[in-house]
Specification:
Blueprint (H helix, E strand, L loop, with lengths): L6 H7 L3 E3 L10 H12 L7 E7 L3 H8 L9 E6 L5 H11 L3 E9 L3 H10 L5 E5 L7 H9 L3 E5 L11 H14 L3 E4 L8 E4 L8 E4 L2 H12 L4 H4 L11 E3 L3 E4 L2 E4 H10 L1 E6 L3 H9 L7
Parallel strand pairs: 1-2, 1-13, 2-3, 3-4, 4-5, 5-6, 6-7, 7-13
Antiparallel strand pairs: 8-9, 10-11, 11-12
Helix pairs in contact: 1-10, 2-3, 6-7, 7-8, 8-10
Length: about 300
Amino acid sequence: MTEAVAAPMAALLEGLVDYAGLFPPAALSMREAVEKYASYHDGPRGTMLGRFVVPASRLDEFLSAADALPAPEVPWRLSVLASVDDADAVARFNRWHSARFVIDAVETKANDVETIWRIASTFDESLVVFVEVPVTADPGLLIDEIAARQLRAKIRTGGVTADAFPTAGEVVRFMAACAHHGVPFKATAGLHHPLHGEYPLTYDAASARGTMYGFMNVFLAAALIYDGSDEREIAPLLEERDAHAIAVDDDGITWRGHYVTVGEIARARAEFATSFGSCSFEEPMQDLAALNLIPAQ
């Protein structure tokens, strides 16, 4: 069993998981989600935890649940799902509550250039704003506008039905467009497991199964693309199921002859592939431990 997290894995996992326990398939109550986030935040794997994801419409409910817990020593970072109509509520929350909880990111959606312009014109420039765009068609024009407005992009990589998952080609095309335009991105949904494979789509005992992307596949591919690898050569990594095809040493990670160093991984995570939203934090960590990539608890 691995006794410590190797430096390349530590770089890959740093702040990787934005906790979205409120959302399906977990769909926890606010109290449950807040309590779990608090335990993860202060736990031994807290360095792998990112923001708490909450809809703008539930911020008051979040405060009520969080007020029942001891005040955090370090303010929690929140990512709020919002529309342009919620901009005032976001600003008001930060004016009154930033000593304990800071909304430093907003996640919203756009299907056209005009909406992206409105988003950029509405939210405060201090916020990190992720714009989810559709990827079934070439998103290049939308990514170009996101770059021009100094926003960030977001891709939906799955869901609770099999048809919610984009193709590997669509995911790689999105990442390549982001790299070309210098746009950081985050992913959301369907990335509970490290490696590509067939898994239950929900937590119901009778859940249908579907093929999911692995978060290691996605973020390792992103690091390689950001470092200049040809996306056509990297595309098969999105569908890699063999854990033995991904080798971690002290200095980097190798996938079928493609190598990325610790420094290159850290740079990609800081500047490009920022995080992914997951309704579970425990499941990704348990799977990583089962692969001996992080210590078991």
